[in-house]
Amino acid sequence: VSEEAASTPEPTGPSIDGLENVDGLTVSKEGKIFKITLNRPKKFNALTLDMYKGIQKALEVSNQDKSTSITVIAANGPYFCSGNDLTNFKAAAGGTKEQVAEMANTAKVVLHDYVDAYIKHEKPLIGLINGPAVGIAVTVLGMFDYVIATDKSSFHTPFAPLGQSPEGASSYTFPLIMGSLRASELLLVCKKISANTAKDYGLINEVVPDNEFEAQSQKAIESFSQLPPESLRINKTLLRSFHKDQLLKVNDMECDLIAERWQSKECHQAIAAFIMKGSKK
Amino acid sequence: VSEEAASTPEPTGPSIDGLENVDGLTVSKEGKIFKITLNRPKKFNALTLDMYKGIQKALEVSNQDKSTSITVIAANGPYFCSGNDLTNFKAAAGGTKEQVAEMANTAKVVLHDYVDAYIKHEKPLIGLINGPAVGIAVTVLGMFDYVIATDKSSFHTPFAPLGQSPEGASSYTFPLIMGSLRASELLLVCKKISANTAKDYGLINEVVPDNEFEAQSQKAIESFSQLPPESLRINKTLLRSFHKDQLLKVNDMECDLIAERWQSKECHQAIAAFIMKGSKK
Amino acid sequence: VSEEAASTPEPTGPSIDGLENVDGLTVSKEGKIFKITLNRPKKFNALTLDMYKGIQKALEVSNQDKSTSITVIAANGPYFCSGNDLTNFKAAAGGTKEQVAEMANTAKVVLHDYVDAYIKHEKPLIGLINGPAVGIAVTVLGMFDYVIATDKSSFHTPFAPLGQSPEGASSYTFPLIMGSLRASELLLVCKKISANTAKDYGLINEVVPDNEFEAQSQKAIESFSQLPPESLRINKTLLRSFHKDQLLKVNDMECDLIAERWQSKECHQAIAAFIMKGSKK
């Protein structure tokens, strides 16, 4: 990693103690900012199991890092994140019942630990949403502290159409954030919403015109990162304390349920239809 | 019920196993949709004790019905529902203390079981609000999953002016949905709000121009009803699970309190004044 | 207190049983309205320890007063309230560790009892926000029932920049009112918001043009005060009951934490810088 790399606008940076390189992920420190960037633009930043584990590890390392005061999650390319990489499921679709069960239980543990890392994060967590966000990339937003999105972004959690159930602790956080009817609109009947609606619903804080997104995001995170770091950590911990136990419990329940759903007929039929549709294009 | 009736736009339909006819109520199945329609337009769909029991029973039958995937509550006429039929109280107003107490306790049980049926409902519950909604017709909206309203609708819960207390679990659901200050605006100082304000407050999901209301409502419920039914039921159950025990407890408390209020001087004076005002018009 | 004073628009009034005069505070009864007015306009209504205790006592007296049905908190001058009077801290800044600890523990008890009085208040609590509100004047709004603000008001809780932590039970009420991301926007990264944003966030109910503020506020509180008083008190008590124990516990936690923060290096540095900045102007 060179000094030159640090001067480009791309979020590459010096390697960080305790973190291995993961395909599709860039982790960097920029001043007081610990930054995790989804970097698999050709696949719309769909999350592989390695990327889940890499983000989890990066959140844990940032938690311990005293040289930075906030954590930022951003992405490269036209999408923020298209959610869970369904190719995992594709492999499973042709497998035996036992193979599907094994796949489901492996993925469940990865998902569980991924979401736990958000629940246990102690720094302000800032999201920079540069384009459409889908599934798990939307549901975990309920555990962020400040989210800025381009007006080209959208938010979609198509659980029911895919025969799946909500994760990311969203079945608990979304009703608290936006009320039960809006939460059902997203998580139950699964409507896709625009950036402006997401702002109205309190799921994000700010919508910025696409051509100003990078400059305004950078300005905001630099400003937040200058606040007294101990206060940030202590105040975040206070705010989280009233919900932490329940969030951990909800994550357990959601992961148990989704592992069941991954083995259900409705889910297999829905994913087969989805992949078929994709392959016809 | 005739075949002819089924071909009109009115939501009549074939009789349903386990359900008796109730004056002022029409229950039907339309494809994957289980539909309950308030049908007492000359009385602005005010709820008689029989209508409470009929809706409760219909919600229970829909819960058991595997042939439909969602439950819809709609209404005929210019009003959605003017709330509790005050003629019950009118009779009581002239009675002895014991007669009033008996009336209050009978009504309390009916109200309690009515609200419990909403709490225990397992299908997505969709509300189509065709006009003004008052009292209990507003408070139970906190247990719906998606509500579409015409721009001619309004929402009013005049508990304090009538010497009464909130029901429908609203003292718990409204603060969660819209925050405590907006909840107090509705439930404590009892301001009437427009459809657009109800949307801003997250009490409803969508406001539609009156002349497009029927077509857009129909399109929405047909679309929702096509989602995988097992996923809908499982995901609704997950979302409800974090609040169900508390909702049941709140309903108990609210019913105990309102039965006391119905026997209070403030309530009798307020209702007498209300009926007097009505009879002078 | 003279008859003349009572005829001016200023909220002075007859002295009230059980209340002593407090500099910077006017307490009055106007019809069915119990009114507490911040009256230290030259200091932007910054709260001295005596004012905290005076407001607490007034809330308690109003609680017991059967001749009024609602409690109103208003203010004189261009500001609603600039928050905690930092001169207390200024004195402490030069003191020994023991003196700072003593100051922190004294202030903690005053703050604790002040916030408890809001939690235990049984009448509808109405806020009339005539200008900027800062710190504790903002955080306690989560325990009001209806708030009207002029369009010249703003809302700011600069805890982190001052090395402090949230109080007024806001770490619990704000996420419930506006969702966790907006709560973090205010309480964690500490953005100042306008009256219109505060209304969007459900922290206040109504924004009124500044030149209409006095007339419209007066009209609203007179209207609310005419509602049946027993119903108001019973319904407020019901709404509060689901949160009261948690609010008391949160207040305890917040007060313990802020007393620690007042003794922290980050806090002392931030306040010194703030006072330095002020003295250079």
From TrEMBL, chains A, B, C:
It comes from the Eukaryota. One of its GO terms (cellular component) is peroxisome. Keywords: Isomerase, Peroxisome. Its main location: other. It is found in: Peroxisome. The keyword Transcription does not apply. GO terms for molecular function: delta(3)-delta(2)-enoyl-CoA isomerase activity; fatty-acyl-CoA binding. This is ACB domain-containing protein. It comes from Caenorhabditis nigoni. The chain holds residues 105 to 385 of 385 of the full protein.
